[in-house]
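Hey,
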Amino acid sequence: MKKRITAILLTAAMLLGVFATMLGAQALMFGDVDGDGDIAILDATAIQRRLASLSTEAFNEAAADTDGDGEVTILDATLIQRYLAGLINEFPATEKPTEAPTAAPTQPPTQAPTVAPTQPSEEVTKVKNNITIYFSNNKGWTTVNAYIYNQSTGTAMTAWPGKAMTYVKTNEMGEKVYSATADVTKFDRVIFNNGTYQTTDTPLTKASTGYFLNSKRSQAYNNKFLAGLYPYGESGEGKITTVQTDYPEGYKKPLYIWTPEGYNPADKSKKYSVLYMCDGQNLFGNKTTLSGYEWECDETVLSLMKNGGDGVIVVGVDNSTDKRDHELTPNLGELSATAKSYGSSFANGGGKVYSDFVVNTVIPYVEKNYNVNSIRGIAGSSSGGIEAFYIGMEHPDKFRYVGALSPAFLLFDKPVWDSYLGEKDFSGEVPRVYFFCGNGNDQLEQELYKDSVLMEGWLKNHGYPSDKMITVTDNDGIHSEGFWALYFPEMLSWGLEL
């Protein structure tokens, strides 16, 4: 699927000045920037010219602040344009008082409670259970079956080779597209096959719509095909904004901020949850990945939205340099013999610097510049998996969920993990944690497998609640973005409790 990836760096100038005093009891007219008593396109132009430093002429900055956030930005000009086009009937600022009362209240204010009231937890839109999935027959199979089943119970919707999928149409690439419907609360896996060849076990989730065959059959995953994902019926791709940030260790680090279709910075009434991810260079395009695959995060979120779910902003933190091992390794104690055998790049890891950077720099930037709610996730794979897990354990109050896929837990032996986890207090609110690791014909993934499946038990021994953890494995899975992409929709669905 061809993608349009546009890197846009947005900046906004803060304006300071003195606005003219309104005469008598005359009400402030938001949008009337030039003070002529009318709201016109010239008012929006005046803001744009000031922000672009093309004009220093005085105007009514109080009237220009149409969103009522205390500063004049390009969003205020946009709101005027939307008002003139009839897309909104009033400005957000009209809902806020323009000045404090001049007289003190005659009655003393009620004393504030000593304990702040509990705020309701923000929730996400629940998604329907019956999902229609689509398969683009890009290998020209004469028969297409969907073997849909429950991984835990082994219960299948229909005996092997499954249900023959229903022909829907032929797409613009000349591929026949087929469909099938399943209740994803009863069944969580699908194997596409033609009776002879098949895909690997593929997660079936509330964030699933379209599939195709992503590769040739491979001995690495037991002579099966690997499925790829796409958002069936969605023509948009969202937008990527690249932001350069100053990393504490003295160099620039790019952030890749993906916003889904329909995201409107001027619509502050619609808030989005945010997923922060390590290895941002591998999330939205396959040109920079070592394996030739990508996480397909955008396809997953668009599929979730297609099924009635909320959009999610995905923020990828770049780790494409030779500093990756250092940045994504927490310094928990002595490295394991296995870690030492890999070389010195994991010694004296800078994981705490990275964790603090995400929490103290990246999150505040996103929450200042984007329309977001309080629901946050953190995820990564391999070294990014151990670092995402570490960030979640260091800041359990900051994240709703953690995704640790093929995590490099083997960098430390169990006594080091017990010492680290034993210092944590898991009696309060903690994030949901999704562990995944493959066990296919791949040496590195097999090395990671043991500790990846043991970590849930180690956490439980230190008081972490069992209902906040899940461990998923795949006997065909190898150390590749292609497999992490397959399990990303399940991690997202489980983390958001869809």
